[in-house]
Amino acid sequence: MTHRRAAGLLLLSALAGCASHHTETSALGCAHEAYEGQPLPEGRAVVACGLPPGVGLIAVDDGAVYTVTAAATFFASDVTTGMRERLFRDVRASPSTAHARALGTVVHEGALYFPSRVLREGYIAPALVAIAADRPTPDEAPRVVVEDHGYTPMAPFVARDGRLYAASVRRSGHSASSGPVIELRFDGGVPRPVTSEHGTPIGVVGDTLYYCHDAQIRRVATGGGESELVTDAPTSFGCFGRLAADEDYVYLTTAEAPYEIWRVGRGGAREHLYTAPVHPEIPLGPPNHLRRDGWWLYFLRGEGETGAELLRIRADGSGEAESLAQGPGLSPPVFDETGIYVAMQRGGFEAPIEAVVLRIARASLDHERD
Predict the structure, then answer these.
(1) Which residues have a Cβ under 8 Å from the Cβ of 246 and sit 6 or more positions away?
(2) For a surface tag, which of 56, 147, 252, 292 has the fewest beta carbons within 10 Å of its beta carbon?
(3) Span 323-343, average pLDDT
(4) 170-211 confidence digits (pLDDT tens)
(5) What is residue 333's three-state secondary structure?
(6) What is the pTM of this model?
């Protein structure tokens, strides 16, 4: 498969020199600023700016994009006006990266849900908490949804049909171990183990949970029961937020170069979709953080502050790979009906370093289909 770059999509230089002038609650003008006064390519807009470098991108929902920092400060930014609001800082959060915090947060019916810790009778206890998505919550007063019942919810989170599926830590007395994938309700209750062994959720499709158990990819009915092996093919980087699933397939990246993306069907048959090109001088590593949306499979190439590139291929492997964006601190994408969103870093020349959220309008992309 060949690799096609759409014109005007190499956005690192276009974003790097953009100055930002705003207050804590306002990002007016950031959607239209561009490098040396030149506009961004058609169909691209910076919809949030002035964020700390390295933020995690949670979701876009009801006209707002949600981000979280490594220090567990949550922000909401209006995608139309650029107005930014600090929602909450989790002062009892355990150490984690912004990306892990984003994977451990979901937006549901006007609230953000994530694992935290609460003070109970003089000791700190793990819990699932929630904050309002449209207004600030006092830092010491998140709403407690589920307190510890022997299973502590951990990232990554997958939301489906009013239920939340999460990795867990099983606690017994003073000991702890990797726990099963658990199901939680947004209105509270006791966590319910879905898998019989420890696991990390990949996704829920219909009434089937796909998850990793050690080096295996397995599936099980969300109501519980005996699990089924999908594949034991070794994958790059492990499972944590990096694989994708849909109604028919699990998508994964092979563990050794030349790195390839494969899809594995219910019968265990594997189909090759993409081979990542090899750069003669720069080791880019394997495709990672696969995301399935519409007709497309999205993924990153490269990671971290050194820069990454967002690409997509048809989920059936047809056509060419398309490059959508690249730059330092690039996050895995999130989606709504009209746009594709990524967080990335700009500044560092004549402007302060900051994180921004870039929106790519679906209508601006060739071959986009509903």
Answers:
(1) 203, 205, 292, 315
(2) 147
(3) 94
(4) 987 777 889 999 999 999 999 999 999 999 999 999 999 999
(5) coil
(6) 0.89
